[in-house]
Amino acid sequence: MSIFKYLFQIITLDIISKAIFGIMSILIIRFLSVEEFAIYSISIALINIVSSSVSSIFNRLYIAGGIDKSLPKSSFFTYQILLTAVIFIFLLPMSSIFNNYFSIIFLATLSQVLFLFVQTHFQASLNFKVYYLSDFTRIAIYSFSFITLICLNTLNTMNILIVYCLSSLSSFIFFGIKLLRIKDLLDLRNVIIFTKSLLHGNEMFLLLYSLIVILFSYTDLLMLKYFSTEYSVAIFAAAFTYYGFLRTILNSIHKLMLPLVQKSKSIDEIKSIMKNFSYLSFTAFPLFIMIIFLSDFFIPFLDNNKYPESIKIFKILAISSYFSFLFSPYVNIVFRAKNAKFLFQIYSIIFSIYLLTSPIIIIFFDVIGLAIFSLFAWLLLNFITFLKSQKILFNSKDLVLDD
């Protein structure tokens, strides 16, 4: 199957998945009050930060890292559960920020980690049929429960998070239990071996880089929570929800590119993959332009003009999304070259500058200024990564092809 056909199928399934979740998100935007939508958005941000920190990092390490894949999958599973618990113990002093939702946020995060563990397994083996079967099982349970909440007039943040938790947990039970063995789950020796493998060489820098990327992705919402109003959090969260549809395309690219580049047997094969992708990125340009133009019409329709300021923010995020679509997939070449140290250094420098500068941007230019600042930060990071990948391809000896 050609990369275009493979990618088209993945993007199509991702879009269907995201569209269903998107409908639910739009209903949440319309029906929750500004204050409750703000706390809901911050809760989802924390769930995504922690679950991504644990699961997406594991995803990259499992597929692109040099960890010992002969270790039982149950050991990787135990590691993620323990790490999630440790993170939330450290977050306890901040629990007041989330009102009375901290416990359900922890449970929702844990269920999300379990679900992503299953998806990582099937992504690594390029078994996208079962990958999406698990995804649509979760969606079906979530959708049915969500509709029930609306019919019973009980749609609120607590109930939405409970439904979120149960849907992810159910999909894990259906597809993930069979991957585990109780004996290995309780064998902490393998967990220690896995932990030690993360603390040296490329794996350590890949871990740190992945953590920075995840934190960077949700810094905007957290900064607005501390330095602006709940309304600013709400309008940015609304724009971020619509922006999620565009991120679906980008995530689909990475979902396929990461294992494809890692499994490539020659330099020419890698170059062929990236050449096909470059055609796709230029073909997608009119689609992004059309979406940006039509946002003046579809956003007011979707949210009943509840957050009109979110239109400008969405347009900025959409431009940022296209630049990410254009340049960020080349990071997979840097992964293959096992040069995560370079990524960690560049991202840590720019992220530090971003953290120090964004409060000032918010105070003087509010949410619009922060969105523009975010666009330039991500563009700089992705373009530097692109240049590094071209240097690696030019000096082909830098690529590791003996995995």
Entry keywords:
83% helix; 2 domains; globular; 403 residues; 0% strand; mainly alpha
Q: Structural class, from helix and strand content? A: mainly alpha
In round numbers, the mean pLDDT is 84
Q: Approximately how much helix is present in the residues? A: over 70%
Number of domain units: 2
Distance from N terminus to C terminus (CA atoms, Å) equals 23 Å
- The fraction of residues assigned to DSSP E strands is under 5%
Largest sheet: none
Count of β-strands: 0
Low-confidence stretches: none
Order of helices and strands: HHHHHHHHHHHHHHH
Number of helices: 15
The value of Rg in angstroms is 21 Å
Identify the overall geometry. globular
Structure in words:
The chain is an all-alpha fold and 403 residues long. It folds into 2 domains: 32-64 and 68-197, no CATH class; 201-403, no CATH class. The chain is built from 15 helices and no strands. The protein has helices spanning 3-31, 34-64, 73-91, 102-124, 128-151, 157-175, 182-185, 188-197, 201-227, 230-263, 267-283, 285-303, 310-327, 331-336, 340-394. The longest helix is centred in the C-terminal third of the chain and has 55 residues, at 340-394. It starts with a helix and ends in a 9-residue tail after the last helix.
